[in-house]
Write a structure and sequence with these properties.
single chain
Length: about 140
Amino acid sequence: MLKDNIGKYYFEGNYNCAETLIRAANDYYDLGLHDRDMISYGVFGAGIQTGNTCGAVIAAAAVLSMKYVEKKAHESSDIKPVTIRLMQEFNKKYGSVLCKEIKPQSFDPEVRCKNTVEAACDILESVIAEYDSASQGQTP
């Protein structure tokens, strides 16, 4: 499971939510991102440092882009529906995709935003599995 990969980044590496999710997903899905690529996700932690869109949500959306976009997003028939599904699932769980609204629901001073990162991993995996099954004509 994707969330099994987060401990080494979140706790051992002391990365934020976005950095942790993209690094764990890079390992899990073999995305081929280099360290410098993943450093660019640092700014997305804490809701783009402003409480805005949750960094874990942004990183999860980036994983979808890496999986479903060949060269340009507007040339992909997959990216919009799978991203909409990701956002729907986050909204179903938290009622929002905003860090400032998610954090009060799942932040724990002992583990910081680990609960949100784990939820993001579960949501991302579920959305990918559901989308891939549907696109292959199978039921998830």
